[in-house]
């Protein structure tokens, strides 16, 4: 059996850093940079709020498509081709949006950028998780998501730091230029990983897949769906909400996204450690509760306090939801690996696409943005309920053995 029980701290750091870098590129310089950019693009007259929501929906639809592609092409040999290819797609589509004000062109480019995000966001952590499992280091898998927290801080700095001397489409240039060297280094490092194309079992044969959908995974999938819809509204529209509710010179106009970024940086480490100490399922329940309080705050406490609490609590939890759910899923179905990760991200992507679409319908019908955040509250309650129906992996496998 292909097994390598030990590896050096330097090698572990290098692999986790490379994964963190590529997630930073596609998920923050690709996706989430749009959140602090949106109020500026609306202020410049390039977009209206409903158009901004529509573009976000196209981006999230692309993310869903990318995740579904990753379900189909989930083997290590596929990842070695697709991951660097879609990092190139990210760079090209980001450069493209610096050159146009056409709504259809922007939407198309953001859709393609979302596809790249979906593929890489599935494949990079899945590849690294499998690499860590072979070295008995799976408990470190959540640390790869630190890249998202650092990327949120970088995206905030790139947008606000250049806000006074860029306008409209050219506001995308700092992100495009930053992406190029980071994508090259991250892809180069990950492509050097020594990995079998498919892990063999103890008899030397390729492992057979357990069912992807069963009584153990269904509540986990439903919980993850609630999480995706619940967190995406503040992560897309919080700076815009700040602009609508606060004075023109209020520090939270730019500060809200900075608070999200700062809260996110330690989040992967904190939730990775909490999951290891108290168990991934209890940690996930706590994670949902804290995130729920954050989105409720934006609804019931209009103004600076609600925005501040929402930014801090959602920023500090959403990565924990991702890493804990992915780890629980793999523990329930250890032979599914990247395919399970891709299926969960596809579901997450679908609910994230629905969020901005529902918001656009609500705004077009005359609803307020703050009341639209109520959709997120309901979604997180839904997700939290289903966490209680997810079996502990050890108990689930013991039951399966007994039935056999």
UniProtKB/TrEMBL annotation:
The keyword Membrane applies. PROSITE patterns: SUGAR_TRANSPORT_2. It is found in: Membrane. InterPro entries: MFS_4 (IPR010645), Sugar_transporter_CS (IPR005829). It is a multi-pass membrane protein. The chain crosses the membrane at residues 12-34, 54-74, 81-99, 111-134, 143-166, 172-191, 212-232, 252-271, 283-300, 306-325, 337-358, 370-390. Pfam families: MFS_4 (PF06779). Keywords: Membrane, Transmembrane, Transmembrane helix. PANTHER family: PTHR23537, SUGAR TRANSPORTER (PTHR23537:SF1). This is YbfB/YjiJ family MFS transporter. The lineage of its organism: Bacteria, Pseudomonadati, Pseudomonadota, Gammaproteobacteria, Pseudomonadales.
């Amino acid at each position: 059996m292909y097994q390598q029980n030990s590896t050096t701290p330097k090698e572990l750091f290098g692999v986790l850093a490379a994964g963190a870098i590529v997630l930073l590129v596609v998920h923050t310089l690709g996706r989430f940079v749009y959140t602090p950019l949106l109020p500026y693009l609306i202020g410049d007259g390039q977009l209206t709020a409903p158009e901004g929501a529509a573009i976000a929906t196209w981006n999230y639809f692309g993310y869903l498509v990318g995740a579904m592609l990753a379900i189909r092409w989930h083997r290590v040999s596929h990842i070695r081709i697709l991951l660097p290819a879609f990092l190139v797609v990210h760079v090209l589509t980001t450069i493209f949006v610096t050159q146009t004000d056409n709504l259809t062109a922007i939407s198309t480019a953001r859709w393609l950028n979302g596809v790249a995000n979906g593929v890489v966001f599935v494949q990079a952590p899945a590849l690294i998780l499998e690499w860590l499992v072979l070295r008995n280091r799976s408990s470190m898998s959540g640390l790869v998501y630190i890249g998202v927290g650092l990327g949120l801080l970088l995206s905030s700095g790139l947008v606000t730091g250049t806000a006074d001397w860029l306008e409209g489409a050219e506001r995308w240039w700092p992100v495009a230029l930053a992406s190029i060297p980071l994508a090259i280094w991250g892809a180069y490092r990950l492509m050097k990983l020594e990995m079998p194309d498919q892990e063999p079992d103890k008899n030397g044969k390729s492992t057979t897949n357990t069912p992807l959908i069963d009584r153990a995974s269904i509540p986990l999938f439903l919980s993850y769906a609630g999480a995706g819809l619940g967190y995406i509204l503040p992560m897309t529209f919080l700076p815009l909400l700040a602009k609508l509710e606060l004075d023109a010179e209020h520090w939270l106009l730019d500060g809200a996204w900075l608070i999200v970024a700062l809260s996110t940086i330690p989040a992967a480490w904190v939730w990775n450690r909490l999951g290891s100490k108290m168990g991934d399922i209890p940690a996930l329940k706590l994670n949902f509760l804290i995130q729920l309080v954050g989105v409720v705050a934006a609804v019931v406490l209009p103004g600076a306090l609600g925005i501040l609490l929402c930014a801090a609590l959602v920023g500090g939890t959403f990565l924990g939801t991702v890493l804990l759910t992915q780890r629980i899923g793999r523990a329930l179905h250890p032979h599914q690996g990247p395919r399970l990760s891709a299926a969960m991200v596809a579901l997450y992507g679908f609910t994230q696409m629905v969020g901005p679409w529902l918001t656009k319908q609500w705004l077009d019908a005359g609803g307020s943005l703050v009341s639209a955040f109520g959709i997120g509250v309901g979604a997180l309650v839904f997700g939290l309920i289903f966490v209680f129906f997810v079996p502990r992996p050890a108990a689930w496998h013991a039951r399966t053995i007994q039935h056999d």
